[in-house]
Amino acid sequence: MKIQLLFPIVLLVGVNSQAYTLEEFINTQRMHTQNNLTLESAVVLAITSDPWLNASRYREDALTSESISALSLPDPKVSLMAANLPTDGFDINQEPMTQLSIGVSQKFPRGQTLELGSRKKIELAKQEPLLRQDRAARVRVIVTRLWLEVFKAQESIRLIEQDLALFEQLLDATKASYSSVVGRARQQDLVRAQLELTRIDDRLTVLQQEKDANLQRLTEWVGFLPNPILPNNLPEVSTLNPIIGNEANMALEVLYEKIHQHPSLKAVDQRINSMEIEVELARQKYKPEWGLNAQYGNRAEDSFGRERADMFSVGISFDLPIFTDNLQDKEVSAAVSRAEAIRTERQLLVRKLIAELDTAISQLNRLNERQKLYVQELLPQMAEQAEASLTAYNNDDGDFAEAVRARIAELNAKIEALEISVERFYVITQINYLLVGKADTNAQSVK
User: Fold this and answer.
1) Angle between the 400-435 and 113-179 helix axes, to the nearest 10 degrees?
2) Number of domains in the chain
3) Which one of 263, 291, 370, 434 is most buried, counting C-beta atoms within 10 A?
């Protein structure tokens, strides 16, 4: 059965030809998963209800709006003034120099400051979809780990409960043999059987505690789900890249190239682009900032009733960035250093992702070997040994302690095989996260 794990970041979802809001979709998913919480349902619920993704969309909208406002000139300034009023009476008609004036001034930012400021906001806005893609992929890894821990505890409990009936039968048979005159069971066999049952009960309690704890952690991502039941089998999982497992250098080079398409690295690239624009913005400070000033002055009639000519003034202003050693030069140097620091962060992130990929591939190879060994050899051998020991004991030709040890060893082997399968699933999930690219973030292959 193939299951497609989707990472929808949508506001409307079509179900049965009807349009559902995001809230209705989540509620519908929860109704369907109350009794059966599949991995697909858990991942979808976690991503569609992740507040971080909504916050990222708001940040993108804010940056987009700021990129538009950054292109606007500063607001002009208006001044109103009564100039040259006589202090002995404040009569505007007394002195010929008295006038009422209105002025307007407008600043023009340096060079291409407005355009560059807008471009910087656009580059930062482009970072948000990439961060959301990375967040969705990381949420899948987190939710998968928690879901797998619950699954492992659930299946371990099921395996133990399956063998619990056999141990109880052994205890009943031992009691009957011990109480019989001709029975060969000894008191230590009876005590041993009771002890093993007690240990199994304790083991079940511990596993139930682990299951409950991980379920509580899972609810942080998917919300409260009453009494969820996970499937009894893991979905089959495959890596996004089919060459995983091929240790040829050429294959590894292809994977390393895939790493460079990771959304987290692309997001860092957008930060680098914005910092390069920041450097250009700092260089604009070598250019003067211009200002335009215009003023109109109205003069009243003189004391003889004669009209006076109104006055109009216009001028420009600009600063002189000539003392640049401790200001502009240092600001440019600081912007360049910040850009280089982000490039260094990118290099460290590339190293980290490649190291994690190498480690995960190595783990996957070893887990594949162990899984093959358990399935093809160890589990059949343990089952054969347990059956032979029990048969020998029933035929009065074997030791009770050996029969119990063989059965417990088989149970432990089954649980270890389960742990290998769970860990293998998680490692493949990690590999898929590391290899996820722009084309892969909306869907990841789990079949």
Assistant:
1) 170
2) 1
3) 434
What single letter denotes the amino acid at residue 162? Answer: Q
* Residue for token pair 């009422």: 100
Residue pLDDT, tens place only, 89-134: 777 777 777 788 899 999 999 989 999 999 999 999 999 999 999 9
Q: Is 111 left (phi over 0), alpha (psi -120 to 50) or beta?
A: left
Buried b (16+ CB within 10 A) or exposed e, 58-87: ebbeebeebbeebeeeeeeeeeeeeeebee
Task: Calculate ∠ Cα 224-228-232, nearest 5°.
Answer: 150
DSSP string, 143-178: HHHHHHHHHHHHHHHHHHHHHHHHHHHHHHHHHHHH
In sequence order, what are the residues at sequence separation of 6 or more whose Cβ sits closer than 8 angstroms to the Cβ of residue 251?
Answer: 243
Q: 318 forms bridges with which residues in the sheet?
A: 290
Reported pTM: 0.79
- Angstrom CA distances, 289 to 112, 127, 277, 316, 322, stand at 11, 31, 19, 11, 13
Summarised one tens digit per residue, pLDDT across range 345-396 is 999 999 999 999 999 999 999 999 999 999 999 999 998 988 888 788 777 6
Domain around 314: 3-446
The encoded tokens of residue 114 equal 């407005």
140: helix, strand or coil: helix
In sequence order, the β-bridge partners of residue 14 are: 19
Helix axis angle for 400-435 and 328-373, nearest 10°, is: 150
The domain that contains 402 carries what CATH number? 1.20.1600.10
Dihedral sign, CA of 163, 165, 168, 170? negative
In 174-299, the DSSP E strands lie at 290-298
User: Which helix (H) or strand (E) element contains residue 110?
Assistant: none
Burial 113-127 (b: 16+ CB within 10 A, else e): bbbbbbbbbbbbbbb
Q: List CB contacts of 52: < 8 A, sequence separation 6 or more.
A: 135
